[in-house]
Amino acid sequence: MGDALNIALFFLRERKMKTHCKRGHPRVAENLYRSPKGDSRCRICHRLASKIWQKENPESVYNTKIKRNYGIDLQIYKKMLKDQGGVCAISKQSPAKRRLVVDHSHISGKRRQLLAPDINIAIGLFQENPEWLRAAADYIDKWRKDHEGGGTSGIS
Length: 156
Prior knowledge:
Elements: H1 2-14, E1 32-34, E2 40-42, H2 43-56, H3 58-70, H4 74-83, E3 101-104, E4 111-115, H5 117-125, H6 130-148
């Protein structure tokens, strides 16, 4: 029995339980990330490393996003962009800062074309209702004509 106790004490001394990660974050259950391989890491350090990797690999991150959301990869996106001449399918403008987004039907899930982010959001806000969109265009035309033509209708 004495030998077993000595072996157990040896292992306890040699394999001390870690209480903090290399950067000093507490090693507690709430702060442990379990990888798919089964090893555990500090959740705070893992998130930091992940953010750094994402910043350094934006194309890979976007490729993963469009594969997950639309079932296409970056090559197909780039082909769609080239086929559209690098511009939004509606405004015919090239994006200023953000890339064009993949428009899709929320009913069928089928992807359509690439749109400027704001235009894609607007279509969503109009619940993809063509009558509302036409009415909104007519409304804008009416007020634009009144304003530019010196009309008196409307709020002064």
